[in-house]
Amino acid sequence: MMKYIIHKTEAKPSFAGEWDSPIWRQAETLQVEHFHPQSSNHHPQTQAKVLYDDNNLYVLFRVDDQYVRAVHTGYQELVCQDSCVEFFVQPDPHKGYLNFEINCIGTMLLYYIEDATRTADGFEKYTSVPKELTQNMTMFHSIPGPITEEITTPMTWYLEYNIPFALLEAYLVPLHQAAGTTWRGNFFKCADHCSHPHWVSWSPIGEALNFHQPKYFGILEFGL
């Protein structure tokens, strides 16, 4: 099973996509590199880093991409259709998880999912997280948008944001993030409606093209 150590930071990131800054050099780099067979021949290199402090998780993605598109600009729109990165986090394996799905221009979809069985309108049991619960999130995206005409030249883009523990605690109480604590989660990159669609994960998802499979989540361990 995949495992990632989340190190603690004493200083907050600057939310400027500074991958090699002193603060982000504290973090380990994970590779989102397990492409589903239904993907096209475009295999973008996707990396992520995560840090934490007493109040937040901090997440930074770097994507060496091509065929970039992003037309969704409203909260809770289907950003997976655009050039998109995703972080699913499950603090308690006996409870649900939150899916932070964010396209390259910073538009987010966020649910709390308790039963990921697919239905006609989404999932068997899920809650659409109200936008007001995300008001203490800071989001940096290196690309302005929308991008209605696909960018076909190679480019590197960054997405950086915080997840307040208070947001998670609206659905998952109590939380524990002391050193040695383990959560579950996965990281993804997709682009469903781009000219070269692809679906890639950090922890492999098996044969089905479905990111919403908690049984395949990797281990996220809080370090020092």
Would you kindly provide a brief summary of this structure?
By secondary structure, the protein is mainly β. About 0% of the residues lie in helices and about 45% in strands.
Main features:
single chain; about 220 residues; mainly beta; Immunoglobulin-like; two-stranded antiparallel sheet; about 45% strand; globular; hydrolase activity, hydrolyzing O-glycosyl compounds; Carb-bd_dom_fam9; Carbohydrate-binding domain-containing protein
Rg from alpha-carbon coordinates: 16 Å
What gap, in angstroms, lies between the N and C termini? 21 Å
Low-pLDDT regions: none
Q: Could you say which overall geometry the principal axes of the C-alpha atoms support?
A: globular
H-E order: EEEEEEEEEEEEEHEEE
CATH topology, anyone?
A: Immunoglobulin-like
The total count of strands amounts to 16
Q: What is the share of helical residues?
A: under 10%
Domain unit count: 1
CATH top level label:
Mainly Beta
Structural class: mainly beta
